[in-house]
Amino acid sequence: MKKSFMPQFKSRDELEAYQLEGLKWTVNHVYENSPFYKKKFDEVGVKPEKIKTLADIKYLPFTSASDLQEGYPFPLRSVPFDRIVRIHASSGTTGKRKILCYTARDIDDWANMFARCFEMAELTSQDRVQIAVGYGLWTAGVGFQLGCERFGAMAVPVGPANTEIHCQMLVDLQSTVFCSTASMALLMAEEIERRGLKDKISLKKVILGAERHSSTMRRRIKESTGAEHVFDIPGLTELYGPGTGLDCSLHKGIHYWADYYILEILNPETLEPVAPGEVGEMVVTTLRKEGSPLIRYRTRDLTRLIPEPCPCGNILPKHDRIMGRSDDMFIFRAVNIYPSQIDHVLSSFGEIGSEYQVHLYHTEDGRDRMLIKVERAAGLSISGDAEIAERISKEIRRQILVRSEVEIVDYGTLPRTARKSKRVFDHRIDLFPESNGE
Ligand code: ZN
């Protein structure tokens, strides 16, 4: 029988019993071995014995990115240095890098988790996996490679090279799987089209990580590369790295590896659980991690649980795609709105481009007003603007339950930046309307 990396649980009860064991082990481990965690636990007056059921997780203190930065260079370290075999670090866009330690078992667990991703994507040992993400301090590349080797497929570790080399490898080696960021995959899609390589390559699957991407992007990648499936791989350096879950071939949500970590979805303001299926912040607690365990780590990433069982039959629970960051949330007429919700509505309209801006104002009569600026798709006539704007506004009302005005602007007029573009402009909090820096 072929080796499986899936857990052997038959029911949610068995999974939860396993989670409880892992949770108890983790709280004891960090309390005994990490002065940082012991202090945190003592501050809120919690001893490891307090954890008797999974629900008791609510007594545990939260951790956040600032805890990792304060403990630089070895935050959360819970084993002696002689047991640490590797470190990885997040890219550190703000402040110090977040460095995480791995023991030999942590690396082994990560490889198994990643191998499970490839199993979920239904690869076989015949597959050739071209890895186009970075190697080094950053966890991505080496994670994809370890997982691929553990799974038993052939790794083609090209890294983030130029499209020239990637195209050559796709043709010469007939790679069947391509792993990259969404923007890299899009670049490759354009290049494959430009060089007319679609019939010369054998790409079947694309695995995208690290950035949000729209359904339009996924469609484009499939059309240009000939791939049948585009998978979404979540990943956070703090939580091993990429490879902690994957959507199955039905693409109805991301199965996550609940035997390695507990995922809570909390309201980012009250830190109480949201109702099942509602959007909130992902908060993770590891169940086996030795080097740098996480206790209720606030990821700031937003998503929702998908409570319904998956038609694929896999018992592992699912969450939705990452919908943005809790820091990006804004409140409009008492409704919590995430830019990704607007993104989602807009992406269903083919007549507009993917760039947009949301402007929030206070009107004279003290009410809030939302103006959404979107670009007309390239090549379309201005004459349809009013009708499209009307339909978008209706759809926003229907899906997000707020009134908005929609303005269609010329294609290419909204600013584009390489990194995350600023999309929400809240003029309500600006006392000097002339000075706001759009
Ligand atoms: Zn499934």
Produce the secondary structure layout.
Blueprint: H1 12-33, H2 35-43, H3 65-70, E1 84-89, E2 99-103, H4 104-120, E3 128-131, H5 140-151, E4 154-156, H6 163-172, E5 177-181, H7 182-194, E6 205-209, H8 215-225, E7 229-233, E8 235-236, E9 241-242, E10 245-247, E11 254-256, E12 261-266, E13 280-286, E14 297-303, E15 305-306, E16 318-319, E17 330-332, E18 335-337, H9 339-346, E19 352-362, E20 368-376, H10 385-400, E21 405-409, E22 424-426
Parallel strand pairs: 3-4, 3-5, 5-6, 6-7, 19-22, 20-21
Antiparallel strand pairs: 1-2, 8-9, 10-11, 11-16, 12-13, 13-14, 15-16, 17-18, 19-20
Helix pairs in contact: 1-2, 4-5, 7-8, 9-10
Bound molecules: zinc ion.
Zinc ion binds next to loops.
